[in-house]
Amino acid sequence: MTPTHRFSIVACARWETRYITEWLTYHRMIGFDHVFLYCNDDDPAELYREVLPFTAGPTPFVSFTFFPEIGAQQAMYLHFLEHHRHKTEWMCFLDIDEFLRLPQHRSVGGFVGSFQGRVDSIYLNWCQFGNNGFINRPAGDVLPQYTRRRAGCDSYMTKHITRAIAIHPDHIRRGPMSDFWHYWNPLEYFEALNIVNVLGEDMHRYYDSPEISRATFEAPGKFEAMLKTAIINHYKFKSKEDFLLRAERSVAGVFAQQIDHKRQFEDGRADQVLGYLNEVEDTELADLWCGWLRRFERVAVPTTASMAPLSRGRPATQSSICEYSFAPTVERDASGAVNGTIDGTRKFHTAFETNPWWQVDLGGMATIREIRIYNTTDDTSPRFTNFSLSLSIDGDAWVEIMRKEDDIPVGGILTAPYIWNGPGTAWARFMRITLLGQNYLHLDQVEIYGE
User: Fold this and answer.
1) Which one of 62, 70, 136, 304 is CB 3.0 to 4.6 Å from 54, fit for a cystine?
2) Which domains occur in the chain, in start order?
3) Hey, is 434 helix, strand or coil?
């Protein structure tokens, strides 16, 4: 069976309604195309009402399942493996207080695609954040409010993003060291998998002993290198009150250890823990999130240009086609982006490759005054983020006139397209859009105005 999704998250949630929209939106923006969400609340109605918009439409972003047995995390994740793993190419088990941080690639597709050869599982370490001085949880988003973290390593535990076809639940041993959402040691054929960390280092021996875990993670420069490549921001304590809330949430099943947090609150150890979890300032994800929000401050409905669209119906081509393309040749597939229909859907689709491109031939030399690029409006829109525009008079020699590298996805018909209008005008016959990095390139429409 062909997977429906490329990158999926599997998560179980209890008492997370107020944070779920931000968490879902963030991971959608970095390229995950589905979330299998297991609700572990006493009553699922509140959480379901919050995520309902993500479950609607022909390609829902969330599959919602109510699992009433409190704390049965392993049972929930086994249910996913037994019933849904065939629906996705890659799977990542995350909690709602965990945000995958990808400063180098900005998209999960670009990150996974950066590994050479076949990789079955990529282990992701934690970066532990503190409460930023909050005694009680404040209203509002997590990412902009929590910017203090431990200076170095606080936990050697990992999560992972794994090729789903490589895992079969019948071969997972139960009992001690069976938390497969952290590591694949309980898998009978564990040694046969290609398991690495975000730096490409073999991880088979990482969990052999605490000493090996510590030596691996605390090697000089290791934590800093992971921060620059990929790591999980873990917002475990959003306030001092959280030491009590974690115990109140439940001490059943996987939550049994939460009773110790209550003891830490009562005997004063909580202050010590929060002290070292607030050692340094780190605004990486706060800046990224706020940048996305500022994008909508600039939204304006584009006015109809008085000039004729020179690109309408002109010959176009692109770097490649793939199984997701709409026509059997690069020329026919590329032509969809100049057919004049702006509706938010994909009109062409390249393969997954490094720096894919699309270009149009205006049929003769033209004065170009404005270029409008309409991104798609579906869950794949974050793929079109950083790109360059180039012009040519002959289709062979190219001059770059613009390079966008702000990591903010481009808008479409529902928000605002990207508009280039100088400074000045340009004179050319060919215009090329090149996506920077490794990913698919697909757009709704491209319009070029001038004479």
Assistant:
1) 62
2) 5-295 (3.90.550), 316-450 (2.60.120.260)
3) strand
